[in-house]
Amino acid sequence: MNRAAVAMAALAAVLIAVYFALQPTQPPSPQPTTTQPPPTTTPPRIPQTSTTPATATTSTNTPQTTTTQTYTTTARAPIYLPKIEVQIVAPKVVNTTKLPFQINYTIVIRNVGNGTGSVDVAGSIRRLAPGEEAKIDAHMTARRAGLHTVEVDVNGTRYTGVVAVYYYAPMLVAEPLAVNVTSLPTNVTLSARIRNVGNYTARVAGVEIRPGEEKTVNITVAIEVAGSTMVEVEGVKIPLSVYYLVPKLEWRIGGPPEVEAVPGETYPVWLWVKNTGNATAELSIDGKNYSLAPGKGLNTTKIVTVDRAGVYDVGFQLKGAVNATVKHTLVAKIVAPKVELVIWSPELKRSWPLPNTTDETTLSVVEKTATLKWGYIISTNATRRIVTLIVEHPDGVDKIRLAPGETASKNFTTTSQAPGSAEAWVKINSTLYKLKTSLQLTPLKITISDVSKIEFSDNRQIEVKITCQTQEGPRGPNIKILSVSGTLTYTSGGRQISGTLKAYWGSEYSGDYRGEIKDKSGWLLANIFGYSIYIEFTTSPLAVTKILINGEPRNCEVPTSLAPSIFYAEKPTATEVSATEYAVRLVSAFARTDSEKPQSATWNGEYVEVQTRDGTTLKVYFESGKVRIEGPLTASLVIS
């Protein structure tokens, strides 16, 4: 039998089996059978029940035996399951000229399964049928340029996207301007040089200024007063110095008010004129022309010939920058007193003021309340007779008699405040002699040979960043240090520090720290935020050499400002320096940033007031065996 015949026979057998399987059940007719191996073909899949007769064809030469077989299949129940896909549709790049900026994005949720599912989108439940899609609008606020993460929480899984925000804005800076004016108020037109150091084109007063360009802009400014001011042109602030050029004359006239004269003697009466303004003064004195540049002065003298006792009026006629007639009166007498006003303490100063004039001198004092001890010494130029003088002074009036060569004196005590002034005066025969003393505060001198301990508390807040290398790159929190306090003790081999600190990282934490420096290296251990942060460093230069976090080495950048800067500074000793200089050095030693460094220091007679660059005021007191600081930073230095 060939293969084709065998295949046909097998197919006929299968069809017959199917036929009989689908017929009503009845006993089969007995037929002779012959046993053959079943065909090796795979039964066909029957998707539904049907009745089909099957006919077997055999060749005339080969007898065949036909058998009936039944195949049964069981259909599986279908399984319906949801399948959720999440997509964040957000721009990859956003260009903006305004910050903060709202980034809008869309959250697309699709059910690509064959069953209905519930989806928790950031706490909101949604039901999606098979093939259904939901779009949810969302946004976030970008407050800075750079990469920003947009995100959504779906069924407890966080999905993110990254948006790059590029910020474009002009930044205009102007060069300072200066102008000279001769009248006020006035309007002036100036040319301002303005540079755009930003990354966006600006327009000022109709002039377009591209990034990196510098342009000249003409502006008109109304000036009311002289001095330094800030002019604003369409948002650009321009420093302006206004110099008011005007002459200003000061003068003093003098000469002997009283003389013991022999007829025919001559006495000078002088006029001193000085231009204290900032413009040249043109004037004439008694018809003679003069030109005085700013700061320049001149003296002119008239000679008075005394031929009799009496009063001599000597005048000067001034015209031009000032129009006035100034006069000096000379009284011719037989005798003329001579007055010396002396300041004995706190510093020796001698003065011989002219009659009815005020001499001036300056004293430097340390304390705010200054006690001046002063007095007068009176003599005469009489050569032959006793002179009777009526002397008025702060304690009353005295009548004294002076023989030729004799003197009269008296001392007084005056209390005054510094900075300020005090006057020493005396009247002789109604002629006033006066010395005005200007009191200037001078910081006391400080010598601190050694410091054994510093106790401190610094409530000035500072933001620091701890950055560690991770698989995603450098990451770390921004931490706000709220306060640091502790004690720094100097030992024979170095220094030790310990104390507490408060910091904010999402919430407020309290911690402690301690450390030590020997030679030019040290260590610091801080316990904060549930972490133990151990740092080793060198002091010259100040650099971190090792970091352990919870005992494990980490590749991190941890600021040394977890401890006060005074810990890393040299011991604050000094030899014969001013109190202001020492206060600046001491406050600088506590400064952690440039903004905490001193801007100015002023001695007011009680303490040094230090202004830091960020506007903070600190007071530094100097007491016996101790130096202390008051303010947001408090410290007490124990001097050995």
Question: SSE layout and pairings?
Answer:
Layout: H1 3-22, E1 84-89, E2 93-96, E3 101-111, E4 117-121, E5 124-128, E6 133-142, E7 146-154, E8 157-167, E9 172-174, E10 177-181, E11 186-196, E12 202-204, E13 207-209, E14 214-223, E15 227-233, E16 236-244, E17 249-254, E18 258-260, E19 265-275, E20 281-285, E21 288-292, E22 297-306, E23 310-320, E24 324-333, E25 337-345, E26 349-351, E27 357-365, E28 369-380, E29 387-393, E30 396-402, E31 407-417, E32 420-428, E33 431-441, E34 445-448, E35 451-458, E36 462-465, E37 467-470, E38 473-475, E39 478-490, E40 494-504, E41 508-518, E42 521-528, E43 531-539, E44 542-549, E45 552-553, E46 556-557, E47 574-578, H2 579-590, E48 598-603, E49 608-612, E50 617-623, E51 626-630, E52 633-639
Parallel strand pairs: 2-8, 10-16, 18-24, 27-33
Antiparallel strand pairs: 1-3, 3-6, 4-5, 7-8, 9-11, 11-14, 12-13, 15-16, 17-19, 19-22, 20-21, 20-23, 23-24, 25-26, 25-28, 28-31, 29-30, 29-32, 32-33, 34-47, 35-39, 35-52, 36-39, 37-38, 37-46, 39-40, 40-41, 41-42, 42-43, 43-44, 44-45, 48-49, 49-50, 50-51, 51-52
